[in-house]
Design a protein that fits this description.
718 residues; Alpha-Beta Plaits; alpha+beta; Four Helix Bundle (Hemerythrin (Met), subunit A); five-stranded mixed sheet
């Protein structure tokens, strides 16, 4: 039976990625002056496991590089080689090269052999080893031994040959394994040594193997097919009777190893290499039927499941809406069933949504390396402090937040934190601190990037802005000035470098965050530091909302932005030239925004004091939104309006209500910015410019029609 081993490539790539991440984490935490022995062991094991898998699949160049790395790490962990800072730098650079190789193998692209040769030569140089032109590690079958004529006992001959060849024999128990997997594993074990015996009992297999590989090598190979808990390995002592000694046999002669091939060999092999002492795996310590604690599922399957649950929630809402007209006594059982369905649908929805949630550690874990490398490049001393790594965010958002955070971290390191000499002169610790944190706040996640550096120079920002031709009023608050750093092409850097100065990064940050339904706040104090605060919804697929009515239209307000609702009094309404209408809420004046005027709808209740005002709070500001009436609070499934129509200013999406009609979801962030646009004369920043494509009644009608026409095809924005 021929089995294509390429079906296991993806498993190897994923596990290699995880091992490289762990290797980098351990290296960044390593103190070269006093290295932690356990950390060195962990780094060595990661390199060793990657090499074992790469050799098994015939990935020549990766095997070569990890072999050199592993050899140096082995000397370091045993104390034969003193660790230095430049070694750690080289190990980290090797990790980057291995990542590039994995990507190349994954996408079947050529390997950069020049970089490989440079990296091998560098590792050998820093370790004090003579550089070699070719450091290929043989990925070949176990060496073939030329032995004399067999002794009298054939069984003893086999044992003697195995002992002379390998000096080790192992009993391997493979538990709860399918027949097809068993056949593949037996073939693989044959490449690691000589299979002396194989017995199959039920779903278990017992294999006796003469091999030069350690138990760790064998487990590393087998784990690409089964779990480690399904493998039990016991060393077997090799006893040779005194009456038939084999010690006098002629010296063994090894056949030359075959040359490398970068394509996966028809009979994949594993190189025998020095390893750490083998860990004992007594069979009694392993459960008979070990189960994995997790499974790997393609993200497209998860998205499909979320979409189906979203449709289920909509159907449940429609049934609930229909049931309101039924007699409670005559249809008691039906209504009770619908009530139970509602609870179950809500629980199912929350459970399914949690599948897409990932911890922020997925993002934060990549920044220690960035901070370390960039701090060295800039000549600064930086301590990275992180908090809230376990805070979860939707996978669709967590991958999109990486690039904005990368810009913010680089900006803090380059512009925010001072050099050690500057910090000493200012009476500060020469080691600057960079903060990364994440926390839940209502229905949002708040991510902060802060530093204890020099803070924003508002006067310099204003000078730069005016020099670039921005028309600014004379009375700008510090918050308004801070927002100028997000303008396209704006930079306070005196010179353009490969780190910053082009005025692109912060504009990208704001646009990306805005596209995710979030917003950015800036808090800065001169000489004390700057904090950039990002507020994002936990997910783009589900929204807790408040339904409001204006005229004959229903709109959804994100509940996380709703502070309170009230009916204003005439004496609390003020009109200020240049700022429009204001509403006094306790001791604060808040801009009054009639939702009917924003979308050119004829209201049922035109006078504010006769209707309802909803106080919305977002982006550190408040507005009073005038509506005709409050309809209720509900959880809605967000539909992407742009998929079926186009982007509508002031609208962030749409949803299908229980009666089958489409309601549009208000973009609260845009409403927050519009009162400021009027105050600044539409000229502060391109971000604050009024969009000429206002949402007319025809626009809303077309948007609603597009949503209704695509009810069966519109997918959840995720």
């Amino acid at each position: 039976m021929t089995i294509d081993i390429r079906q296991f490539y993806d498993t190897f790539f994923e596990e290699a990625d995880e091992l490289l991440i762990e290797m980098e984490r351990q290296l960044l935490a390593l103190d070269p002056a006093a290295p932690d022995v356990e950390a060195l062991h962990a780094i060595f094991r990661a390199a060793h496991s990657i090499k074992g898998g790469a050799a098994t699949f015939g990935f020549q160049h990766m095997t070569e590089l990890t072999h050199v790395l592993e050899s140096i790490l082995d000397r370091a962990r045993t104390g034969a080689l003193a660790l230095r800072e430049d070694m750690v730098d080289a190990f980290l650079e090797t990790k980057d090269v291995l990542n590039a190789q994995i990507d190349a193998y994954r996408h079947e692209q050529p390997i950069d052999t020049e970089t490989l040769a440079y990296m091998v030569e560098r590792l050998q140089r820093i370790a004090g080893e003579p550089a070699t032109a070719d450091v290929l590690v043989p990925v070949a079958p176990a060496p073939t031994l030329a032995v004399p004529a067999a002794p009298a006992s054939p069984q003893l001959a086999t044992v003697a040959a195995a002992a002379a060849t390998t000096g080790a024999m192992l009993d391997i128990r493979l538990k709860d394994i399918a027949d097809s997997d068993c056949e593949l594993l037996i073939a693989e074990l044959g490449h690691l040594g000589e299979v002396l015996n194989h017995a199959r009992t039920g779903t278990d297999s017992q294999v006796r193997l003469a091999t030069a590989c350690s138990p760790d090598d064998i487990v590393a190979v087998c784990c690409f097919i089964i779990d480690a808990e399904q493998i039990a390995i016991t060393p077997v002592a090799i006893a040779v009777p005194e009456a038939q000694p084999v010690a006098a046999a002629p010296a063994a002669v090894l056949e030359p190893a075959p040359a490398y091939t970068d394509a996966a060999p028809a009979t994949p092999t594993h190189a025998a290499v020095p390893t750490a002492p083998a860990r004992e795996r007594p069979a009694s310590q392993s459960p008979a039927h070990a189960e994995s604690s997790s499974i790997r599922v393609g993200i497209e399957k998860v998205d499909q499941l979320i979409n189906l649950v979203g449709e289920l929630v909509i159907t449940q809402a429609m049934l609930a809406q229909t049931a309101t007209s039924l007699d409670g006594v005559a249809h008691e059982r039906l209504l009770n069933g619908l009530s139970q369905l509602t609870r179950n649908a809500r629980d199912l929805q929350e459970s399914v949504m949690s599948i897409r949630m990932m911890p922020m550690d997925y993002v934060f874990s990549r920044f220690p390396r960035l901070v370390r490398d960039l701090a060295h490049k800039l000549g600064k001393q930086v301590e990275l402090v992180t908090a809230g790594q376990s805070t979860e965010l939707d996978k669709g958002l967590i991958e999109r937040i990486i690039d904005p955070l990368n810009h913010l971290v680089r900006n803090s390191l380059d512009h925010g934190l001072e050099s050690p000499d500057e910090r000493r002169a200012a009476g500060k610790d020469p080691v600057g601190r960079l903060f990364l944190s994440a926390a839940h706040q209502g229905g949002n996640i708040v991510i902060e990037v802060g530093d204890d550096g020099r803070g924003l120079d508002h006067e310099k920002i204003l000078r730069k802005a005016r020099a670039q031709g921005m028309a600014l009023p004379d009375t700008l608050s510090e918050d308004d000035i801070a927002q100028l750093i997000f303008a396209p092409g704006f930079s306070t850097a005196d010179a353009v470098t490969d780190v910053s100065g082009r005025g692109v990064g912060m504009d990208v940050v704001r646009q990306n965050i805005k596209s995710m339904g979030g917003y950015v706040e800036v808090r800065s104090q001169r000489g004390r530091g700057t904090t950039i605060r990002i507020v994002l919804p936990l997910t783009l697929a589900i929204l807790d909302g408040m339904s409001v009515k204006v005229g004959n239209e229903i709109f959804i307000l994100p509940l996380s932005c709703v502070s309170e609702s009230l009916q204003p009094r005439q004496e609390d309404l003020k009109s200020v030239p240049g700022r429009g209408a204001l509403l006094q809420v306790r001791n604060e004046y808040v801009p009054l925004v009639p939702l009917s005027a924003r979308f050119d709808i004829v209201p049922t209740i035109p006078r504010p004091e006769d209707g309802i005002v909803v106080i919305l709070e977002a982006e550190g500001r408040k507005i009073a939104l005038q509506v005709d009436e409050l309809v209720g609070q509900q959880q809605v499934v967000v539909k992407n309006l742009e998929t079926n129509y186009r982007r509508v200013p002031g609208i962030s999406g749409a949803t299908i209500l229980g009666d089958g009609s489409v309601a549009l979801i208000i973009d609260v962030g845009m409403l927050m910015r519009e009162p400021r646009q009027a105050a600044f004369g539409h000229s502060v920043l391109p971000e604050h410019a009024v969009n000429s494509d206002q949402a007319s009644p025809n626009t809303l009608e077309r948007a609603r029609a597009a949503g209704e026409a695509g009810q069966g095809a519109v997918r959840i924005a995720a």
